[in-house]
Structure formats: C-alpha cells, structure tokens
C-alpha cells in the first residue's frame, strides 16, 4: 500500500528540525578570553595557553595557540568562571641552524669542536610558565606578562 505524506506531517517535520537546530545552535556557550602574552616585554612568537581548572571548578580545560603574542579562547571551549592554573608553553623553533657533520672517532679535537658547535646551534628548549588565574567573565584585553628568572653566575 502506498502511503502519502500529508502537508501537516511535512510541516511538523520541518518545525521539529527547525526547533532542534535552534536548540543546538543556541546551546550553552562558555566564556571567551583573548589578549596578548609576552616574555620580558617581547611577544611570544609561538606557543600555547592552557587554563586547567582547580578542584571544585565546573569547567573543562581550555587551550588555545599563541601566535605573535596573540591568543583567543573561544566560547566554544565551554570555559566557565572559577580559579585556574594558567600554563603558557613557548614552542621552540625546531629548525636547526646548521647541518651537523658526523666525524669518525679518532680526532678528538675535531669531534669536540663539532659537538660544541652543535650545542651552540641547537634550538632553545621549550619554556613554560605557570600562574594562578581567576576567570570571572569574558575579556578581550588580557595582558599576560612573564619574566625569565636570571640566575647569577656562581663564583669559583
């Protein structure tokens, strides 16, 4: 038996799908944060910012890239208000500055020189900074400033 769909059935289906898409599109959204991140006054070229919720904070961890000092945690991250551990990781440039030359053992001076040059040309290791951070609402003008700790040289 062939069944035909009446206009009211089609209308009901369209209304149901419209209501469902409205609910999904207007679902709960989180807090958005954006701003700049610097180390010793210079923008972080490449890195990552993470907000890790402290105990009893009902929020997921939110992460975003840092590019040329700028970051944005969008509302889709579902970030909520509360206390967080703020972690900033600076991504080291992994492009070697020079090609390594492999030398046969035997010439200790040449091997030592090659090792010293390789260490000098090696990219810097990744740095990370941690701080406490309180989220109390969306903010587009956050200024994160970090300073490297300098260790005075030891006397011999």
SSE map:
Layout: H1 7-25, E1 33-39, E2 42-43, E3 46-53, E4 62-67, E5 70-73, E6 82-90, H2 108-121, E7 127-135, E8 139-146
Parallel strand pairs: 1-8
Antiparallel strand pairs: 1-2, 1-5, 3-4, 3-6, 6-7
Major beta sheet summary: 4 strands, mixed
Tell me the radius of gyration: 27 Å
Number of strands: 8
CATH fold group of the largest domain: Immunoglobulin-like
Query: Order of SSEs, N→C?
Result: HEEEEEEHEE
CATH hierarchy, class of the largest domain: Mainly Beta
Helical percentage: 10-25%
Distance between the termini: 99 Å
How big a fraction of the residues is strand? 25-35%
CATH homology superfamily name of the largest domain: Immunoglobulins
The secondary structure category is alpha+beta
Q: Enumerate how many helices there are, as a single number.
A: 2
Count of individual domains: 2
Label the overall shape: elongated
- What's the pLDDT, averaged over the residues? 77
By CATH, the architecture of the largest domain is named Sandwich
Uncertain regions spanning at least 5 consecutive residues: 20-25
């Amino acid at each position: 038996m062939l069944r035909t769909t009446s206009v009211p059935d089609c209308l009901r289906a369209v209304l149901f799908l419209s209501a469902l898409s409205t609910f999904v599109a207007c679902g709960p959204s989180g807090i958005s944060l954006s701003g700049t991140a610097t180390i010793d006054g210079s923008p972080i070229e490449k890195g990552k910012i993470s907000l890790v919720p402290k105990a009893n904070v009902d929020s997921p961890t939110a992460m975003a890239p840092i590019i040329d000092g700028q970051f944005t945690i969008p509302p889709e991250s579902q970030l909520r208000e509360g206390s967080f551990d703020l972690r900033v990781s600076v991504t080291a440039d992994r492009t070697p500055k020079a090609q390594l030359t492999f030398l046969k053992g035997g010439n200790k001076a040449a091997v030592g020189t090659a090792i010293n040059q390789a260490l000098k040309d090696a990219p810097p290791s990744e740095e990370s900074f941690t701080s406490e951070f309180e989220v109390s609402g969306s903010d587009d003008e956050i200024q994160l400033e970090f300073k490297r700790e300098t260790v005075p040289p030891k006397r011999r």
